[in-house]
Amino acid sequence: MENQHENIVIIASRLFEQFGIRSVSIDNVCKELRISKKTFYTYFPQKEDLVEAVLIYHRAMQYEKFSKMFKNKNAIDSLIISIKEIRKTGGHESQAMCFDLEKYYPKVNEKFEEITRTEIRNGFGKFLRQGIEEGYFREDLDVELIAFFHSVQVKKTFDLMALDPKKYTKKRIMDFFIDLMIHLIANEKGLKYVEENYNITE
Q: What CATH number does residue 52 fall under?
């Protein structure tokens, strides 16, 4: 039973990313999986429930991915690794999927945007405290305020890239962001560590 639920979510996720949410019908998902609509509705009473499950799946995959990348890494390594990864891949959801989510599923979108902001705020706050404890970040940082600022500006950054992707390229935005964050939060020891270990524009 659990495997069937997961299979539906994985297939729907792939289809949503490829074609957008609105263009993918329940019939499309059932056909891809070779299951009946009756079976589908056993797990998801309506399409909105499937959309929400796909977003939960995306968050879980992202969390697992970055947890592995950050294992045994100090705060500066984690920051640069995460930003370089975002620069390579962008947001996990496709632009078509994000557009459909905002336009046709506003309640689900609003719910998950708030969840995302909270997770980013909490995670970034934890990351800042780690860097302070390791001696790489300034001790006088307003952790709460910086974490809040970061949680708000992440979506704004991706919105900016979507607005004019040729002008505001991922590389340009992420290079600016990493330079801004490093010089905002790192102390002399942290800046020296970056200089000795990274060419952050690569």
A: 1.10.10.60
Handedness of CA 164, 168, 170, 173 (dihedral sign): negative
The H or E element spanning position 123 is helix 106-134
CB 185 within 8 A of CB 131: yes
Domain annotation covers residue 68: no
Residues 56 and 85 occupy one common structural domain: no
Report yes or no on 67 lying in a domain: no
Evaluate whether 105 touches 48 at the Cβ level (below 8 Å). Answer: yes
pLDDT band at 22 (very low <50, low <70, confident <90, very high): very high
| Chain-centroid distance, C-alpha 90 | 8
Q: Are residues 78 and 173 in the same domain?
A: yes
Residue 12 above 90 pLDDT? yes
What are 125's two structure tokens?
A: 């706050």
Lookup result for tokens 């270990």? 197
